Amino acid sequence: MAMSGGIDSSVAAVLLHNQGYEVVGMTMKTWDYASAGGSKKETGCCSLDSINDARGIAVEKGFPHYIIDIREEFGNHVINDFVDEYLAGRTPNPCVKCNTHIKWEALLKRADMLDCEFIATGHYANVREEGGRYVVSKGKDEWKDQSYVLWGVSQECLSRTMFPVGNFHKKEIRQMAMDMGFHELAQKNESYEICFIPDNDYRSFLKRRVDGIEEKLDGGDFISTSGKFLGKHKGYPFYTIGQRKGLEIAVGEPLYVIDIQPSNNVVILGSFEELKRQDMWVKSTNFIKLPALDQAIEAITRIRYKDPGTLSTLEQFGDYVKVSFHKPVSAVAPGQSAVFYDGDDVIGGGFIAKHAPNEINVLAS
Question: Are residues 176 and 38 in the same domain?
């Protein structure tokens, strides 16, 4: 059982324990925030308090608890990718990278070492077997649903995965924690920040991680979609597609970030209408409900975590999927996840590409 010390994974562990499973608690140390020079107190799943909370519950219920240090793997795969994506003018999705390449692999490796049959997490999602496939679907609590960040998990991992809180609402989990006697835990505030940036200031994080980033990138141009010079920006990695606030540009009408061009340190600004897209390309796809996309299908496509989704047509071209929206969508950010749904089920997903490669353009023409 992956135990972060938070309410969801803690209640999930106790639920499994009460159902008669032999539970082994596992807390993953992914990040040491103090080493990053942040200004706020260390919080979240990697803090000492959270680790102690997880261990305390395991001790009280009488099942083993281990702490595994995966900071090196996390740094190599998640943090380095986070920095590289911003430097490439894209908006990274670290939770997806972590779930896909770090957490599940780390859990399965330890599960095999401990002769455990299943791994479990506190995600608000569900998994079931259907037609020889293991299918991820939305959690019962629509607001807390986390299926969006699980599109990259492999069939092998899903075949051994359990989501004990997937069929509950958050308020029910809080009440369970109270009933279990975990009163402080039940009242614990939730964090919606990236675990390695608990002060939620990714710009300062980039400055600390990349020597001289300000000197290298400060002074680039804001350019309109028509090519007009609008002013100077503070470095293209500090902006995201769709951003309106913090541009410090006044032209008498709202402007949004339309495109980011790292090669010449330019940020393109335009109107909300110019922000809209009718289609996009998706790379590094993983299909869950289907073994592959062998014909065009319709699906609801979500382009960010809280996006309600838009009806679209999906077509496979080489290693890429072309998504054609049935109505224009705004702020399609390269680097973010595009996740395809059939009702509540996750069909699959991938990362939004900045451009279609030339060979894909040929195939599509």
Answer: yes
Compute CA 314 distance to the chain's CA centroid, rounded to the nearest angstrom. 22
The CATH number covering residue 33 comes to 3.40.50.620
Q: Map residue 64 onto helix, strand or coil.
A: coil
Could you tell me the pTM of the whole model? 0.92
Question: Would the pLDDT of 68 be above 60?
Answer: yes
| Residues 258 and 162 reside in one and the same domain | no
- Of 302, 320, 217, nearest to 311 by C-alpha is 302
Q: Quick one: CA dihedral 270, 276, 280, 286, positive or negative?
A: positive
Q: Residue 271: name the closest of 324, 226, 212 by CA.
A: 226
Cβ atoms of 161 and 153 within 8 Å: the answer is yes
309 pLDDT tier (thresholds 50, 70, 90): very high
Q: Which of 162, 186, 210 is the last residue of a domain?
A: 186
pLDDT at 59: 95
Residues 169 and 222 in one domain: no
**Helices 7-18, 170-179: crossing angle, 10 deg rounding:** 60
Residues classed as catalytic: 98, 195
What is the domain range of residue 236? Answer: 218-270
**Which CA distances in Å does 66 have to 56, 105, 121, 201, 238?**
12, 16, 15, 31, 38
My answer on whether 162 and 56 are in the same domain is: yes
DSSP secondary structure string, 12-32? HHHHHHHTT----EEEEE---
